[in-house]
Every structure is written in structure tokens, then in C-alpha cells.
């Protein structure tokens, strides 16, 4: 049996350093860009996404309609549960990345939301928003675009308001997509016309 080529740990460390540097550079590019028309709206969006309030509100509206909308709401809420639990109980505790540093002389302090005490990686807000959109969309296709855009906006708002690095948001989106896939698979989803839910 031929020997497997061994990976050079120095190359892996160098790659991680490069990715961290890119992440930092992207974050700093956002922090120094003057966007007064976006600051207030994104700050409010970021706060409204706390504890998935927006997604739960949408789920409540969908649940009022029998059939596919109600089934989509059930799957969406289940996906939020999986994504939030995975992000907060596993991801944040395993990685323990520090939140971005806010300079005292930040040029745009009005865009910030309170800094959470939890670890930075991954973004739980993004994970939950993406999980909800990714679980609802296949069952209720008309909701795919608006919920997808909302999830993207929530993710960006977490960078814009100074509480996450871009890498945290990307990881949250990947986690949310996986959570939705797991929920859809667990409910034996096999197309937009047939969804079996409890």
C-alpha cells in the first residue's frame, strides 16, 4: 500500500494566517466606509434579528395559512433550532474566536450595536436566518428570493454593525444551509408538492 503524502503543518498554518489577514482586511474595509444611509437601517435590522425575531414573525404569518405555508413554517422553525444550537453550543465553544476590536475613535460609532459576550465564530444570527430561508424556500418557492435576500442582509448587518468578521458570517451561512438540509432530510422532503411533517 503506497504511503500517503504527509501534509506540511507549516503550510496549513500559513494558509490560516492568510485567511485571517484577509478576513481582517475585509472587516476593516467595511468599518472605514462611510454609509450614513445604511447605518440606521442595518443597525435596526441587526437588532431585530436577535433571537430570530424576524424569522419567527414570518413563521407565525405562514402558520396562519394551512397547507404548504404552514408546513414550511414548521420546517423553518426546526431549522432555526438546529442551526442556533449548533452555532452556540458547538461552534462558539469550540473555536472561541474573539469579537472584532472596536477602536475608541471609530469614525462611525452610530452604526454599532452592543457587543455580544459570546464568541465571534460562527455568526448565530446568520446561521439562523439562512437556515430558515433554506428550509422554507424548497417547500414554498415564492418565499425563496425574499427570505434569501433577508438572510443576506442580516449577515451583512452583523459585519456592518461591528460584531462579526466576514468569515464568521460565511461560516454561519454554511452552517445554516447544513441545518436546513438536515431538517428537510429528516422530514423526508422529496419536492415542493409533498412534505410530511408531524
From TrEMBL:
Domain of life, per the record? Bacteria
Q: Which UniProt keywords apply?
A: Cell membrane, Hydrolase, Membrane, Transmembrane, Transmembrane helix
- Its membrane topology: Multi-pass membrane protein
Which SUPFAM superfamilies does the UniProt record give? Acid phosphatase/Vanadium-dependent haloperoxidase (SSF48317)
Annotated Phosphatidic acid phosphatase type 2/haloperoxidase domain ranges read 75-184
Please name the InterPro entries in this protein's record.
PAP2/HPO, PAP2/HPO_sf
Q: Name one Pfam family in it.
A: PAP2
Q: What compartments host this protein?
A: Cell membrane
Residues annotated as transmembrane: 72-91, 130-157, 169-186
Please state the protein's primary subcellular location.
membrane
Q: Name one GO molecular function term.
A: hydrolase activity
Q: Name one GO cellular component term.
A: plasma membrane
Among PANTHER family, the record links this protein to: DECAPRENYLPHOSPHORYL-5-PHOSPHORIBOSE PHOSPHATASE RV3807C-RELATED (PTHR14969:SF62), SPHINGOSINE-1-PHOSPHATE PHOSPHOHYDROLASE (PTHR14969)
Q: What is this protein called?
A: Phosphatase PAP2 family protein
Q: Which organism is it from?
A: Streptomyces aquilus
Q: What is the lineage of its organism?
A: Bacteria, Bacillati, Actinomycetota, Actinomycetes, Kitasatosporales
